[in-house]
Amino acid sequence: MSREARVNNIGIRFEGLTPPQNVCDDDECPWHGHIKVRGQIFIGKVIKARMRNTVVVEREYLVYNRKYMRYERRRSRIHAHNPPCINAKEGDVVVIGETRPIAKSVSKVVLGVLSRGES
After folding, report:
1. pLDDT averaged over the chain?
2. Distance in angstroms (rounded) separating the CA atoms of residues 31 and 10
3. What is the pLDDT of residues 82-103, one digit of tens each?
4. C-alpha angle with apex 16: 57 to 7, nearest 5 degrees?
5. How far apart are alpha carbons 73 and 86 in whole angstroms?
């Protein structure tokens, strides 16, 4: 079996999520490495991609306010590992999944890009 053909089954069925075409040798890559994806799955937009192999993903969500009987919009910023085979850039809409802690503030990994940004 050649190196190009080996892709791990990460066990996540998500519409629009396919294995990357490129091959990398990163151990923290869920498709080609040894890291397991478990727990929560998020969709968000990459707002910063300046760190090496790490991106900042911002996601918006709604929280119900009982006093005023309506929803308020909140957002959170999540640091996620960006494998070289996926290579998400600023403006991309990505799917991220929870993993074991990779660094002090990184415990998520980018699983794939749903849509590329304009830049």
Report:
1. 90
2. 7
3. 999 999 999 999 999 999 999 9
4. 90
5. 29
Q: Which tokens belong to 42? A: 């998020």
Is 1-119 a CATH 3.40.190.10 domain?
no
Reduced 3-state DSSP string for the chain: CCCCCCCCCCCCCCCCCCCCCCCCCCCCCCCCCCCCCCCCEEEEEEEEEEECCEEEEEEEEEEEECCCCEEEEEEEEEEEECCCCCCCCCCCEEEEEECCCCCCCCCEEEEEEEECCCC
Residue type, 57: V
- Between CA 42 and CA 34 the distance in angstroms is 21
Residue 52 contacts residue 40 (beta carbons within 8 Å): no
The pTM is what?
0.86
Separation CA 79–CA 56 (nearest Å): 5
Q: Which residue, chain included where needed, has tokens 């119900």?
A: 64
Q: Which two tokens stand for residue 20?
A: 């990357």
